[in-house]
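Holo prediction — 2-hydroxyethylsulfonic acid.
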Amino acid sequence: MHVKSPLEPAAFSLPNLRNPDPLNCLLSPPAAINTAMNVLITGASAGFGRAIAQRLVKAGHTVFATARRKDKLDALAAELGAKLMTFELDVRDRNASAALVQEIERSHGPIHALVNNAGLALGLGPAHQSSLDEWDTMIDTNIKGLVYMTHAVLPAMVERNHGWIVNLGSVAGTYPYPGGNVYGATKAFVHQFTLNLKSDLVGKKVRVTSIEPGLCGGTEFSVTRFGGDADKAANVYQGTEPITADDIAETVSWILSLPDHVNINTIEMMPTCQAPGAFAIARNAS
Ligand code: NDP
Ligand code: 8X3
């Protein structure tokens, strides 16, 4: 069953991907989207979340943009118009997360897709010199916030037998690097939680994906990681051509355009200038 938003008429037709008409394929826009949907994005005030919101509104979807900084969300709403609705939300607040999902579904109809994007890294020091408060914040945001939002939307998606949950993981969840300690571990959780959801959802038309990018520039990620030190953050990208937020937005848009029988479990993406590193070996260590 394909569910349409109660707000919108079908703005796009579902492409016939099983028996494509070759001429039609050539003439169709490359990013044909299913019918217009309601999409909730966490962390939409900056970076990936903001770009995803822009991309999906342009594709005809209605976006519920959430984050803590209401002024940034308001600026995005001024740019994108009535298809973007803004809601102040700290995903670490379990009750607020559940209440917001209920309120949106009551007043605007089903949430067809959730993009669990809100997240952060704090610090790049070795574990034995790290701040426990920063570890708590990463765990509370990247793991618990994502779990709260997922728990809030999932039962209704299963009931409707339709939906998407798109999680922002990271290559840091697969490949260890010095200073990645808790940040990388939170993203390993995102990877495994996504796959475990897939197991529970087998046979359902509720799709779950973990997008796991590497070096991405042009967002606030590194500025946040380095406590607001913009110069230190800029050094991370010196001489590189990183992935951009628009690349991530395009990927999310593609995932949401796929027919009901297709689930993308995991997407790992790196810029061409990046690759996983070699094992570290300390020689003559005391
Ligand atoms: P940004 O720092 O640019 O944006 C992070 C977003 O998360 C902001 O909108 C911020 O909004 C929001 N956020 C942070 N904490 C909370 C919270 N407690 N409640 C609600 N929203 C919150 O980062 P990116 O866009 O680069 O990263 C987005 C996601 O992608 C993160 O999960 C990150 O770990 C992941 N990622 C990033 C990579 C990169 O290199 N940039 C690579 C791989 C993964 P506000 O402060 O207004 O609440
Ligand atoms: C962000 C990518 O390599 O800084 O998740 O951890 S990395």
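READOUT: The chain has one domain: 33-213+248-269.
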